Every structure is written in C-alpha cells, then in structure tokens.
UniProtKB/TrEMBL annotation:
Family from the record: Belongs to the aldehyde dehydrogenase family.
A GO term, aspect molecular function: oxidoreductase activity, acting on the aldehyde or oxo group of donors, NAD or NADP as acceptor
Protein name in UniProt: Aldehyde dehydrogenase family protein
Family annotation (PROSITE patterns): ALDEHYDE_DEHYDR_CYS (PS00070), ALDEHYDE_DEHYDR_GLU (PS00687)
Catalytic center residues: 246
Upper classification of the organism: Bacteria, Pseudomonadati, Pseudomonadota, Gammaproteobacteria, Cellvibrionales
Ranges of residues in domain Aldehyde dehydrogenase: 17-467
Annotated InterPro entries: Ald_DH/histidinol_DH, Ald_DH_C, Ald_DH_CS_CYS, Ald_DH_CS_GLU, Ald_DH_N, Aldehyde_DH_dom, LUC3-like
UniProtKB keywords: Oxidoreductase
Amino acid sequence: MSEYQMIIDGQKVDTDAHFPVLNPATEEVIAQCPRATEQDLNRAVDAARAAFPAWSARPDAERAEMVHAIGAALEAHAGELAGLLVREQGKPLGGFAGLGAQFELGGTVAWCHATADLELPVEVIQDNDEARIEVHRKPLGVVGSITPWNYPLLIAIWHTMPALRSGNTVVIKPSEFTPLTTLRAAEIINDILPPGVFNIVTGDGSLGAAMTNHPGINKIVFTGSTPTGKKIMQGASGNLKRLTLELGGNDAAIVLPDVDVAAVAPKIFATALINNGQTCAALKRLYVHEDIYDELCQALADIAGSVKTGPGDGEVDFGPVQNKPQFDKVCAIAEEARASGARILTGGQPLPGPGYFFPVTIVADIDENTRLVREEPFGPILPVLKYTDVEDALRRANDSPNGLGGSVWSGDLDRAAALASRLECGTAWVNNHAMIQPDAPFGGVKESGFGVEFGRYGLEEYTSIQTLQISKA
C-alpha cells in the first residue's frame, strides 16, 4: 500500500495521523494519506506568504513560461496520472465517447497552456495634458484552493494556474476522497516552481473550514456543494476574503419539436452522463416536447442499454459512483422516483458485488416535485419530462434555486438562441451542453455561486484593481 506526503515550502511533509483512500470500484484501501494538523496548515500559509513577494515581482513572461512548463511536465506524466485517476476516482481510462481519465488529463494540459498565454495589460483611462490614469491588476497574495472529487486534477488546475499566472501563491486542499492524483501533480509542479509558491495539505472538511477562516489566506476558490459554499462565505468574512464559488447545478435542457431525434439523442446522452453524471454542468433535467417525447425517451433508453458499467481498469463505458455517501444518495433518489410512480426505462437498481456501481438510468413520466427533479442527483440518472407549451417549459426550467448552465435543442438556431438567452443560468448552450473551454468565462448565478473561471475574466478574479493617477499640471 502506498503512502503519500504533503508538500510545504517545497519539501515533502508527513504527519503522525493518516486517513485511508479507497478504490470505489473495489472498496479496498489503496493508500494512506497524511492528515494535516492546524500547525501544518499554518506552515503552508506562512510558506506561501513568504514566497509571495518574490513570485509576484517576477517578470510576467517568466511566470507564463513556468505555467507552460507545468503543462509540459504534467503531459509527460499523463499515463501515470491517468492511472491514479482510474484507481482513486473510478472513471475509466477511455470511457464513453472518450470522456474518461485520459480526457481529464488532456484538458489539464490544455488549460495550463491556455492560461499561460493569458495577459492582463495595463488599461489607460486618460492620457492628456492634465493627467495620465492607468488601471493595473495586482495579485491578491495567498490563494486557497478547495477542490472536489469528480475531476480531481482538472479542477485543481482550473483553480491554481490562474492564481500562479497572475502572481499569487497557492495552498491547495484536494478532496479527502481523491487526494492522490493532486498530491502527485503537486510534486511534479514543485520541481518547476520556487519553494513555497505551491503548497498542498490534505485532510477532511475540517481542514477546508480552517482554510476558510485563516487570516493569512487572501482568496478562496471552491468547487462543490451549495451548502458548503454558504459556510465558506461565512468563514471568509473574518478577513473579507475574495471568493470564487462554483457550486451545485441542476441544469435544465429544453428540446423543441423540430429536432432530428436520432441526431440529437447521442449528444444529449453524452452531455447528461459525462463523468457518470458526476459533473456540475451536466444536463440533469430534460424537458421534451410531447410530439417527440416517446421517441426521444426510447432513443436514450436504447443508448443506455448498450453501454457497460464496471471497474475503470476494464473495457467499460462508465465506472462507479465515486464514494459511498454519493452512491447512497443516488440509490435513494432512484428508489423515491420509482415509488412515486415514475417509469424507469433502464437501470434503476445498484449492481451486485463490491464497488459503488449504479447503471445508467433513464426515468420517464416523473413528477416535477420528486427529488430527482428538484435536487441535483450527481450520478448516472436522468429524468425526462414532457411539456406542451414552450413558455411552460421555460418556466419549469427556471424554477430552481440553481443557475449554473442550461440548453435549448432545435433545428432553428435563431429561435433556440432567443429562448436560451431567457434561461436563468451562467452559461446557456444551443444544441450542446456541459461544453466549456479555457478562453470562455464559466460560472453560476443564483445558488450556483458567483465569480467566473477561465479566460481573461477568470484571471481577473485573482487580482485587485489599483488605479494609478499621475498629475501632469
């Protein structure tokens, strides 16, 4: 069994206490991970604060070059890191539509290089005989990153590369369910960066709470549940930390009756079930016009019946649900849907044997007030709801406390775009869903959080504005 170490101030650090990391496909312990103490966190924050002046003063081009180097180094270790993802997260190496561990590694590398190429130029507001006024973007200091278990490495890169690129230093805490890939990546990253610039500590939610409350951390970036995001807001008030919160989503999609069902069904299936449905911006509520409802339900059920769920190190399309609490939630939501009279087209029951395996489940004729519709299931289960009037479908789609993403599917792009713009969400897609890229801002509204990631808008979130006014008269 492997044992892993944290990295503080460029040095590997062990602790007296450890916690087990399980393979969700076998429920067996695969590693022991160090449990950070408050003193460990303090040391990590102190190291990041000590490294900040020199790192922020480095020429911009040098920081960009180092972020590019991180992307290249992670790519060189892609096979090793993808194997770790399969073992601790459960996702297949290739997976359905090629959206497994190798896909996560490809995205990780691409985001590093795209972020390295971002710039925040000085903006000149005025330059005349009276004065020159410039707007500068200044790094904040120490950025604390708290990452989830669904995309352990990719989201770590989303959080930390913009922080580094803009001149901040980092303390990151990965999910206690999936710390191993991030720990190994941190080791690779520390071979490139000066000591103290990138620190990693591991532990459970109490460690995340301590980061949120820590007076030495200037910003928290968090991806996870809405209840935890609210607690982070409370904890961050102590020193008025900056926050970027990407919280829960329960994304709705509206399918208009003019679509080619055979053409859109595979795409809808892939965007709903990406990462076994364990994706914040996955399609999670599907509203379909009555004229094509039965046809689309059957098409989705046919695809679901053709895929294979099993251990990620085998030839499968989908792996297990990542952890026992989430697995239990998916099982309970499915059972409640069945008990309420919904029609289970495929799946609906956990698979026998060890591991947290739940097959892809398509649910039709479901009441709007069931948990499966009202709550984010975050698993391989999709409710399909019928509508007659598109205005009613829009009202139902927007009737949610969440607002991360949404989509409209139609052969009429202008009509679809007009309808999509009325969805109450941070990103609206037409004839697609859950597709993000490193140069387009992504974030939520309502209880799906605030702040954005990616591109210039995301990079600005890691800075404060300093207005420099030079009087000439």
